[in-house]
Amino acid sequence: MTYIETLGIKAQQAKKGMMKLGTQQKNDALLAVAQGLIQDTDAILEANTIDMARGIENGMDPGLLDRLKLDASRIEGIAQGLEQIASLPDPIGEILRMQKRPNGLMIGQKRVPIGVIGIIFEARPNVSADAFGLCFKTNNVVILKGGKDAIHSIQALCASIRHTLEVQGIDPDCLLLVEETSREATVELMKQHQYIDVLIPRGGAGLIQSVVMNATIPVIETGTGNCHIFVDETADLEKAIEIILNAKTQRVGVCNAAESLVIHEEIAPKLLPKLTQALIEKEVEIVGDKKARACSSSIQEAEPSDWGKEYLALKISIKVVSDIDEAIEHINRYNTGHSEAILTKDYDHAKQFLEEVDAACVYVNASTRFTDGFEFGFGAEIGISTQKLHARGPMGLLALTSTKYIILGDGQVRK
Amino acid sequence: MTYIETLGIKAQQAKKGMMKLGTQQKNDALLAVAQGLIQDTDAILEANTIDMARGIENGMDPGLLDRLKLDASRIEGIAQGLEQIASLPDPIGEILRMQKRPNGLMIGQKRVPIGVIGIIFEARPNVSADAFGLCFKTNNVVILKGGKDAIHSIQALCASIRHTLEVQGIDPDCLLLVEETSREATVELMKQHQYIDVLIPRGGAGLIQSVVMNATIPVIETGTGNCHIFVDETADLEKAIEIILNAKTQRVGVCNAAESLVIHEEIAPKLLPKLTQALIEKEVEIVGDKKARACSSSIQEAEPSDWGKEYLALKISIKVVSDIDEAIEHINRYNTGHSEAILTKDYDHAKQFLEEVDAACVYVNASTRFTDGFEFGFGAEIGISTQKLHARGPMGLLALTSTKYIILGDGQVRK
Hints:
Helices cover 42% and strands 21% of the residues of chain A. The first copy, chain A, has 415 residues and is α/β, with parallel strands linked by helices. The termini of chain A are far apart. At the A-B interface, strand 2, helix 10, helix 14, strand 13 and strand 16 of A face strand 2, helix 10, helix 14, strand 13 and strand 16 of B. Chains A, B: One of its GO terms (biological process) is L-proline biosynthetic process.
């Protein structure tokens, strides 16, 4: 039996007790875990120092280093996240659509845990506590596999959480950490369908691709975002500039940031000079097609590969189109099924865009940056699904639940 | 480019037109397709004759031959199935839970097609028309891969459907049939995640296992059913015998038939003599553990492998337990997550069984044979899911849909 298999068996054993925890017990434990993390701040920061020193030594990118770094106030933020999860309504146990059939059978759907959830993530240590909190609140056992760059920080966070659980009289194996960080261990984990019910990868395109190709466990794909904004010929120019600046620059490096503009040729000559100036003031590099470049000298020539690129940086591509059909066709060809927006005053165009664009989130007259579980009012987020099965778009607690039919009879047999 | 890839590309091309079909157009087309099948009865039966002759030549099992066989009245049944699908409400386009956020954004979920659905099935030719009807009603393109034993019948059915669609002015490529029946073609199909959004295997354990191991496309697993009935010590004896006979013998060889009984030791001596007599009258072979055999001489000794077996035949296993906890533990160990029943008059035991048994459908005081989309009131069924993601239990039209968030703003940007 391999190390990964023993984790799978532990998870299955923990599942039985986990399924029986009630709402009050879960919420009390989450609050205790939050307190425990604050108390263990020193140990967690010490572990984080090791990861940070290694990161600097290995020449890690400053953006990644920032994601890796913990301090007292970030640990407080993590604890507050758990407290917020405790305050959310408990979705488990709700009975949906119970109806009486003509033969007298009462048939309804009960919301239940999924069972064991595997989460593979990269260098953000806070994901370990967030993911634990969401899985715990929904009575799921979680197996975490974090990136090796953050392993000491993740180990310290998980040790603190497991210790508090044990003090609370809860089986600490409802949170299991894969301590082997090799690629082989990750691939082996993806194939444990006899022990793990669902796999959620949280990371870059390489990780997601590896999961899609290797996993035998059902996967919820949390994808990349090559998000477009289409500026229709009737758009309000001022609002368009404000929304585009927000979607591109309010936060760079996130999946719901805009990466590409599609602009109607009638509005391009009016919009582009002002827009490019505003973007340049924010230090955004701009590439575009021939028609776009004819409207502004600040636009560099786009390569064909630009249309499919998620820059995650201060860069944007611009394509000018002759009508909404061309815009939708371009977007449906190059988007990654994440978040797409139209800016328009035209009712029919808004309706057509909402109907025909194939993405998790389709916007009219708003920034794509709102694609987020908190902004959608879920009070939490485990990721943003770009697949069509089970959950699509920002995922809150409900995405971590399944249902089972319960059927109440009084002796019915089938005729 | 391989043959399978060309089918994927055709499906993607057909998807665009398919997504635009309205309810009336879809229902009219389904009725026309039903009429077309009746008109093409001779050609379909001629093709079926070839499959039947081959089947007999190859010594096909009589049960399988019966599933393969078509006649005028079965074709009428297939046509009626399509008419019924036409009469069902159209789920596509419904907007769920649209709510206003504090910043004025209106956020709701719109029910949309999944896109392209791959269905791999075995020797029942009628699955081709049923699956087409359900996918068509939900604006999905379907790629069918049927078993080679039924290939002529399936080809004839699909040719008739495609011809009618073309006459109706609808792109016939919304129904694509894989004409290569080799194992290699099937495995290649399972890996076309760039063209196919979801894969639904309908068949035996071997097919399902192959899909789980090979597919890179998200799968909805429609599994086998090792269904149990637990007879609690308070059960009504007469009703228990009636329900068990129904669940075992009303139809053999279906996934919701009971395969195993778990009986409380206090009721076993009263129940088993009468029950085994009734089962033997129905020609059911009975195996059981030591405690069961002590109650009736008609019970043969069960092998350890019996507990995990889906007989799909006139055979049943019996285990006697000392309490409900042991019953639930046994069931959760050996069941396949399909349908499980408790027969009891005890409120607490009913509640515990409903809560703790991990299966798609959990019954109190009724036959497991009701696990079926029609019996649940869906008006149709594409299969019974035994997985926990997306859909669990009998799947009707809703299981073939996804959602997308639509967000209506008036200039909102994220702060």
